[in-house]
Design brief:
The chain is mainly alpha-helical.
Length: 134
């Protein structure tokens, strides 16, 4: 049974107007919100996961915690501050001269991972911006 199915079954179980059922429904609302937010996060991370899995499928070393000779970096990502109307309201920009929007299907795992990181940064910023609006 999935989390969503469990939440739905519990909702049907706690349908009365007793204090215990009302409390259970409030807890279910919290669980649903957490489940929805976790799913959004998984959706944001899936392109990065896919890019890393592509690199691993090429049988290339990842260089995470391993001691081996490394080639020079083939992708660099620049990150900077972007100011709005007020100096105390700082945003950001992130880009790479080596990465194009079409690199999601690039044969280079570095380009795929770099593009996924850039898109993830903007997606997280967009999600947090929409949640902070009243």
């Amino acid at each position: 049974m999935t989390d969503a199915e469990t939440i739905e079954a519990a909702r049907r179980l706690f349908a009365s107007d007793t204090p215990g059922d009302k409390l259970a429904r409030r807890l279910l609302a919290i669980a649903e919100r957490e489940h929805r937010e976790n799913q959004e996060l998984r959706n944001l991370l899936s392109p990065l996961r896919d890019a890393v899995l592509f690199a691993r499928s090429q049988r290339r070393p990842m260089g995470i915690g391993q001691d081996f000779p490394r080639a020079p970096a083939c992708v660099s990502i620049q990150l900077g501050a972007a100011y709005g109307r007020e100096r105390d309201c700082v945003g950001f920009w992130i880009e790479s001269d080596e990465i194009a929007p079409t690199d999601a299907d690039s044969p280079s795992p570095c380009h795929r991972i770099g593009l996924a990181l850039i898109r993830l940064a903007y997606a997280v910023a967009l999600v947090s911006m929409t949640r902070s609006k009243p």
